[in-house]
Amino acid sequence: VLKLLLVAWDRRLIFAIGTSSTTGETDTVVWNEIHHKTEFGSNLTGHGYPDYNYLENVWAELRAQGISDD
Question: Which domains, ranges and CATH numbers included, belong to the chain?
Answer without folding.
Answer: 1-65 (3.30.390.130)
